[in-house]
Structures are given as structure tokens and as C-alpha cells.
Amino acid sequence: MKSTEIRQRFLNFFKERNHAIIPSASLIPKDDPSVLFTTAGMQPLVPFLLGGKHPEGERIVNVQKCVRTQDIEEVGDNTHDTFFEMLGNWSFGDYFKEDAIRWSYEFLTSKEEGLGLDPERLYITCFQGNEGVPRDEESATIWRSLGVPEHRIYFLGAKDNWWSPGPDGPCGPDTEMFYDVTKEGLGDLDMQEFKEADGRQQVVEIWNDVFMEYEKQKGEVVGKLDQQNVDTGAGLERIAMVMQNVDSIFATDLFFPIMIKIDELREETDEKAERIVADHIRTASFIIAAGVQPDNTGRGYVLRRLLRRAVQNADALGFSEGDLVELVSTVVSIYKEPYPEVGEAETLIVGTVEEEEESFRDTLARGREEFKKINGDISGKQAFDLYQTHGLPLEITIQLAEERGVAVDVPAFEAELEQHKELSRETGSGQFKGGLADSQEETVKLHTATHLLNQALRDVLGEHVSQEGSNITTERLRFDFNHDEALTDEEIAEVERLVNEKISAGLEVRCTEQPVEEAKEAGAIYLSQADYPNKVTVYEIAHPEEHERGGVIYSKEICMGPHVENTRDLGTFKILKEESSSAGVRRIKATLN
Ligand code: ATP
Ligand code: MG
């Protein structure tokens, strides 16, 4: 079944059930300055979930364009792209779990009106409950009544089956549908096997029904909402993947023509690079069609980053200079019908891609010249200078260094970067030449959150936890630490809760200069492998009163900063992933909303 038909069938199915079809909202959120792009179907509809009257009524169905830059590192696997379409049906205080689940099931399995998928390949997750909210037996009972066997329904914690946009507002449990995409079929799976199959992308999450009936204030569920809402989201690319019987979204009709074109242009084979190029050029096309141009901050910076990563990966594939833009007409041919704005913007998209590639190549060429002037291994300071003054991305420096067989001191580069951010903050310039004013603010917040996380992990898992690595992008923090086993859902929830508790407590961040030995003796966290100067900066996070009377300090770390002044500025902390990094080392990725 072609993706066009999937869209059409979805809209019709719900139209038949009295839903009004509404068009996709823009990728650029209208009244929400807190996010750069629309990341889910619910976003433009929040006012109606809160009780506002939708002009089209209480039942809505749509296909929403979404961009999730936070998934950028996932691109290359079988199921994530940075742009995707979300199919959604909505109840604003009208029907609830019974109808929503039944219709999801019918749409997925009915041959006549829906997709005709095999019920034997369907797995379901429901919310297991916590202190404030009971286990979602109701949803499970409805699934069973439809014929889903008891052992194919798994109860999971808040990390997987609870939806909430932030510390305040509507929220609730969700139930998710997974589909077995293996050739042979996996059959019955216990919970552990199911989780492993999910990790290997043998079962793929295709649809999520959220039942919004609770309200949160300051991170705590305070009661039920006046109205019960349904918010569902099914990824078109993933549905197309299961309908077309292919093993990745890149082999569906939404990507295939782009992959063929890439195949014609490339000299080298590198599946991941091919997928990144296809994904990024497609997302960039939609962002440009929404009226964004490359820039050094905000949305324009996201676009710049996508295009530059596309150029880098196209180079890795052996594309000739200027070949990348050839893909635009293919993207346009796929999308000009469902999204005429993409067709109308074709000339603009072509021009923008060409110009950005050219300016990036100028930057690279100048950076390469500078690189040639350096002899031997590349120090952190030299790598930073290439980046800062000559705009050469660290990845390129590493690549050039590899070609020449020399090393780059990456930790020292990162230290330089941190220090520079601190300096530029002190001098109030607020910008560094790389031009990342907005993103700088984000990384500072994530840096403070990293300190809170470090301490929270010690509180929950024990004092043996120490930092093995840390990396911050504008979208997320990544923290590696030594611990022998995977964290349980409960431990993850507790760490998350602790960090959010410290955030909402409005702790103040203060820093002092101390002799290094004194700081270590006083219990400051430090990196055992680091070579500290005699005098170091120590960042302490505590309640203002505790600071004043020299009382309880929550987190104390030797660090170069910079940090926010008050944890209140951080927003909501969320753990996105907990996984193994290497033997005895766990890795957490987390973000702030
Ligand atoms: P995952 O855990 O696989 O990243 P998610 O929990 O982030 O998925 P939701 O936020 O529940 O997904 O979004 C609803 C639906 O949108 C998913 O069931 C999936 O079909 C689709 N979806 C989410 N993220 C992506 C993505 N990056 N690329 C393609 N489809 C996506
Ligand atoms: Mg996700």
C-alpha cells in the first residue's frame, strides 16, 4: 500500500466516525516560543486539549508535519528520521479509551477500511501506575476484549507510557502499539524478550494513544482535568514500513526514490551516510519551504547544521561538489502533491542548498589551509582555534588528523570550548564567532543539569558512581558513568524525580576559587584522570539559605563552568535513554524541556 493511500485511508476511517479533517499546521509553531519546530501532532492543538472550543468540533483527524532534531543522532537506524508525518485522531472531551483503542485496533487490522495488518504481530504496552495514578487496567481490558492475548500486553513505567509536555498542564497514561517486522515472526515474547526485540528494532512502535485526563502542577499530579481527551500519533513512515514489508523507513516509497538517486551519485557505500543525506536533505527542504533560511541561531542554525551534515556525509559517499542539490527535485516530486508548499518553494530550496554548500566549502578550504600550518599532534587549543577562528568543525579536524596519522586532543578541545563560553559570558559579548548564541544558552543549562544528574545518580545508585565522560549538544546531554548493571525503570524514574525536585527547589549555583587539594578534601566531585591546576573553580549548587550559612550543599564539583545562576531556569529534566556504553560503563542521554 502506497503512503498516499495510507494517509487517505486514515483520514477516511475517522471521517466515517464523525471526525473533521483538518490540514497540517505549519512546522513553525505559532504561539509557542519554547520550541523551534512542531514536534508532535498535539502541539498545535494544546489549547483545545485544555478546554478551548475547536471550530471544527470535538472530533478531529489530521496528518501533521513534524521535525524532531532531538532524534538527529538516531537517524541511520531503521525507524527514526528528523522529519516525519504524524497521523492523529483527537477527542476534545468527547470519546475516551473505549472508542480510541477499538478504532486503533480496527484501523490497523481491518482489510476493508484500514490496513489489514496481522493481529498476531501486534504487541501492546500500558501504563503500570505509580503513587499518584493507578495502573491502567482499563486500557488493557479493552485490548483483551478485542482479542489481544493477555501475554502480549506489557505494563511499563512512566518513562515509556506516560505523556506530559512539562511540569504543568494536561497529562496522562498512554498505550502504545508495536508491530513485529521480522520475516519469521517472533511469536510470544515475555517482557524481557519484548524489550530486547524493541532494542533490536524487531518490533517497532507504530502508534501511541494518549489519554489525557490528569493535570500536573510543578511536576506533581494534582487531580483530574475537567475533560477527558484522546491524543493519538502514528508515524506515517513507520506504518509505510510495515505495510510495504520493508526493513526500514528508508526503503518505503517516501524515501526510496531519494535512495535511488543517492545510489547514482555516490562512489562509496556507507548505509548510515546514505540515510543521513536522504533524511537531512528532506528535512531541510521542508524547513526552507516553511520560510527559514540558514543562520547562526535558532531555527536557521538547525537548518545550517542539517545542510552541513548533509554535505559532510555526501563527501564521505564520494559525491562530487554540488551533487547534493540534485536530490531536491526528487524530494519535491515525492511531496509536491500532499504538501504543495514544498513544490512552490523548489527554486528557493535549490538556491539555499547550493549557497550553503558553497559557503561551507569555503569555510572548509580555509580551515584546511590553516590545518596544514600545524605540525604534529593537534592540541586542544589548536583544534579550538581552527574551530573558533576558521570555522572548521571538530569532526573535520579529526578526519584531517586521521588522514595525516596524528592525534587530536578532544577532551582538551572541549575544555577550551567550555572555558571560552565562560569568558564570552563574563565579557557579556554573548556570542562566539561560531555564532551559537541561542544554543550556547541551551548548553549552559544542560551543563548545570549534568551536575545535578551526577549527584542524583550517586544518591540513587551509590557513591561509586563517577563520571566517565560527558558531552553536551544543544539538544541533549550525554553522561557516561561507571556502574555494573542497567538501571531499572524505578531507578531511572527516581533519578529523574530527584533532578526535577532540585530544579523546582530553585537552588542557587555559586562558584569559588580554591586550592585543588582543599577542594578535593572538602568532597568536591572531580575527574580522577584530569590534570588540574593548583587553583581550581568549584561550583556549588544549594538553597540560597544553605549557601549563606554554609549548610547543606547538594552538588559540589570542580569545573570550569559556565552554569546557570538558579536551577529554576532549567525547565523539566527528562531521561531519554539509558544504555550500556562499554563494559561497566552506563550512558544516559537526557534533555531539558
Ligand atoms: P521512539 O521511542 O521510537 O523514538 P517516541 O516514543 O518518541 O518513539 P512518540 O513521541 O510517541 O514516539 O510519537 C508518536 C509516533 O510517531 C510513534 O509511535 C512513531 O510512529 C512516530 N515517530 C516518533 N518519532 C519518530 C521519528 N523520529 N521518526 C519517525 N517516526 C517517529
Ligand atoms: Mg523518540
> What ranges have pLDDT less than 50 throughout 5 or more consecutive residues?
424-438
Overall shape: it is globular
The portion of residues assigned to helices is 40-55%
Chain-averaged pLDDT = 91
Given this structure, which CATH class of the largest domain is correct? Alpha Beta
The amount of beta strand, in percent, is 15-25%
CATH architecture of the largest domain: 2-Layer Sandwich
Rg computed from alpha carbons, rounded to a whole number of angstroms: 25 Å
Task: Provide a descriptive summary of the structure in words.
With 593 residues, the chain is α+β, with helices and mostly antiparallel strands. It folds into three domains: 3-247, BirA Bifunctional Protein, domain 2, CATH 3.30.930; 374-432, no CATH class; 441-592, 2-Layer Sandwich (Threonyl-tRNA Synthetase, Chain A, domain 2), CATH 3.30.980.10. Helix content is 40%, strand content 21%. The chain is built from 20 helices and 16 strands. It has helices at 3-15, 46-49, 97-109, 137-145, 158-161, 191-199, 236-243, 256-265, 271-289, 298-316, 326-335, 340-344, 346-372, 380-388, 394-404, 410-426, 437-461, 489-504, 516-521, 544-548, and strands at residues 20-21, 59-67, 83-92, 122-127, 153-156, 162-163, 169-180, 203-217, 220-235, 467-472, 477-482, 508-515, 535-542, 555-558, 573-582, 585-592. Strands 1, 2, 3, 4, 5, 6, 7, 8 and 9 form a nine-stranded mixed beta sheet that branches. A four-stranded antiparallel beta sheet has the order 10-11-16-15, with helices on one face. Strand 8 and strand 9 form a beta hairpin. Helix 9 crosses helix 11 (326-335) and helix 17 packs across helix 18. The longest helix is centred in the middle third of the chain and has 27 residues, at 346-372. It is globular and about 75 Å long. It starts with a helix and ends with a strand. It binds adenosine-5'-triphosphate and magnesium ion. Adenosine-5'-triphosphate binds next to strand 3, strand 8, strand 9 and helix 7.
